[in-house]
Amino acid sequence: MIADQRETGSLPRRPGTTSWRRLYKERNMKKLVAVLGMLPVIGMMAVPVFAQEAAGKPPATVSAAMMIAAGLAMGIAAGLCGLGQGKVGGAACEAIARNPGAAGPIRLAMILGLVFIETLVLFTLAVVFAKMTY
Amino acid sequence: MTEHLNWFTVLLNHWFGGAVLSLLGALHITPDNPANPIPNHVAMGIVVFLIAVLFFLWLRPRISVDKPGATQQVMEMLITNSMRVGIRDILEDSVEHQPLHYLNMVGSIAIFVLMSNLISISPAFDSPTGHPTVPLACAVLTFFSFNWWGLRHHGPAGYAKTFAGPVWWLSWLLFPVEIISSFARLLSLTVRLWANIFASELIYVVFLGLLIAPSAHFSVTHPVLSWALAVFPAIFPAAFIVLHAFVAVVQAFVFTILPAVYIGLATSHDH
Predict the structure, then answer these.
(1) pLDDT tens track for B178-198
(2) Chain A within 8 Å of B205 (Cβ-Cβ)?
(3) What pTM value is reported for the model?
(4) Binary contact (A20, B257; C-beta < 8 A)
(5) ipTM summary value
(6) B93 touches chain A (CB under 8 A)
(7) Which long-range contacts (CB under 8 A, 24 or more apart) does B184-189 make?
(8) Which domains does chain A have, with CATH numbers?
């Protein structure tokens, strides 16, 4: 969509620049759809099932369950991050193969995308570390 | 858990520990560790501050337009370079109105974050950004400054209107979402930087531990084999130091782009 607008000239583009703001805005357009889709999920999350909070050191079975949950969480996060990063890397390779002259900005955008995806795994790691009280 | 104290932290606590303790006592704050009231990350933040100030005080009188030295050229590439990833380039690409007005703020945070991330390459120092409060301080500064500049640029009513979204009949829904997402920037900036540096240091320690384990296993029964196996932990974790340098530079880059983008969004007109 951005490329079409650029060709028709509705978005002026300075030569040799990468507009981070434009990359960011393209993501923001999908925000409305995402918000409408998330409403039922938020409604379900509001049910206070997990209201009880264990204080101090949990019993051994809970501790073992936390270990398993931590491993599963990191596995799922890392696996899905692999899928996402594979998509980013593949798209960047295709783009560079199609237009080798634009390799520099494409590589930068790719690294930025990879970092943002990788950060989500590290969010999981942070949650695992915050919740591990074995 | 007993925290490992850096040599500089020990030194700083030896010199200023009593003064800091009495100052905190006057403010009715009890430090976590009364024996050493200055924590590691604060001491390392002071190290980064001192190194940066001394370095730029050293560099300032040596800057020359006619004969730029090597250090000056490298520092100029931090500001602007041919790949358009310097601090000024990022600001010019992200902010429409007077991008250079924000160079001091964004550039200070960028250089502080870059040096804080890179300092733990040296085994004598730890990264201050490996503790959540230091990235939080940078994120809070960013948050207040981009909101302040948005308010200055649009005025209170106009700035509130930028939160309402493009269509008026959905603004009741989008306004709280935009407010929450604005506050979520604070969280994501903090956790992104902290978790990356923390994990990058952790992965080095984990692989060091894994590689030391066989050597430690044979340390009593077969000392010669143990010494031979000790080659692995001495060599291979160095790759993770290189990885840490890469992560440090990329995270500083991200922590420069995102404040610039936020300032650009807060002061843009075509919303």
Answers:
(1) 999 999 999 999 999 999 999
(2) no
(3) 0.78
(4) yes
(5) 0.70
(6) yes
(7) B185/B139, B185/B143, B185/B258, B185/B262, B186/B136, B186/B139, B186/B140, B186/B143, B188/A119, B189/B135, B189/B138, B189/B139, B189/B142, B189/B143, B189/B255, B189/B258
(8) 1-52 (no CATH), 55-134 (1.20.20.10)
